[in-house]
């Protein structure tokens, strides 16, 4: 049996799903204040001064701190059901289907959120390694449970899967955070092209 590791945003999707989800769940007041609370961070990211993880952490804190978890979780399930199907690349969904048909273990490995990735993965029979929001007594803290996992994809994969037990490992990625994943794999796909 093989192990197939898929990044989500820009690998399986045509765009950044997390940004779109944040715009969906942000309150009108948060959207109105985003220019000042998040704008400088976005500019820093575009200039290469702020990492993707730092930007994600900042925006996550702004949007989710103090929010009730249940309605946000419901919005995540709705987003997975109604929005994600329109963002998925058909060719990549076909690759997932081929791996599943071969009996491979297929894992989505992402810096995005479980709120919408978990329901989508359940629908498609995939395992999931991703960021999870922390909640205390049903209220979101605005932090990730266990910290931002985007930059720790390879470590999280190694911790969860006994790689030598698989005949082959396949990795599909596209970003700096995905670069350690191909080092774990026999078959490497980068931005849709096979490397090895």
The global form is: globular
The level 1 CATH classification is Alpha Beta
Number of helical regions: 8
CATH fold-level name = Rossmann fold
The oligomeric status of these chains comes to: single chain
Helix content: 40-55%
Average pLDDT confidence is: 91
| DSSP strand content | 15-25%
In total, how many beta strands? 8
For the record, the count of structural domains works out to 1
State the secondary-structure class.
alpha/beta
The low-confidence parts are none
Q: How are the strands of the largest sheet arranged?
A: 3-2-1-6-7-8
Q: How many angstroms separate the termini?
A: 19 Å
Provide the CATH architecture. Answer: 3-Layer(aba) Sandwich
Gyration radius (Cα, Å) is 17 Å
Largest sheet: 6 strands, mixed
CATH superfamily descriptor: HAD superfamily/HAD-like
Order of helices and strands: EHHHHHHEHEEEHEEE
């Amino acid at each position: 049996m093989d192990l197939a590791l898929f990044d989500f945003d820009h690998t399986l999707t045509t765009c950044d799903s997390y940004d779109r989800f944040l715009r969906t769940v942000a309150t009108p007041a948060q959207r109105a204040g985003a220019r000042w609370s998040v704008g400088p961070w976005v500019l820093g990211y575009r200039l290469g001064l702020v990492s993707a993880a730092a930007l994600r952490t900042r925006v996550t804190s702004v949007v989710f701190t103090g929010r009730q978890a249940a309605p946000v979780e419901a919005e995540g399930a709705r987003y997975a059901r109604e929005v994600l199907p329109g963002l998925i690349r058909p060719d990549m969904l076909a690759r997932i289907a081929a791996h599943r048909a071969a009996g491979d273990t297929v894992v989505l490995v992402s810096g995005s959120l479980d709120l919408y990735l978990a329901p989508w993965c359940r629908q498609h029979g995939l395992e999931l390694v991703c960021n999870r929001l922390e909640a205390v007594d049903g209220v979101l803290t605005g932090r990730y449970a266990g910290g931002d996992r985007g930059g720790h994809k390879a470590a999280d994969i190694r911790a969860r899967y006994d790689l030598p037990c698989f005949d082959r490992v396949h990795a599909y990625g596209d970003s700096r955070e995905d670069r350690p994943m191909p080092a774990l794999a026999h078959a490497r796909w980068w931005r849709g092209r096979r490397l090895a």
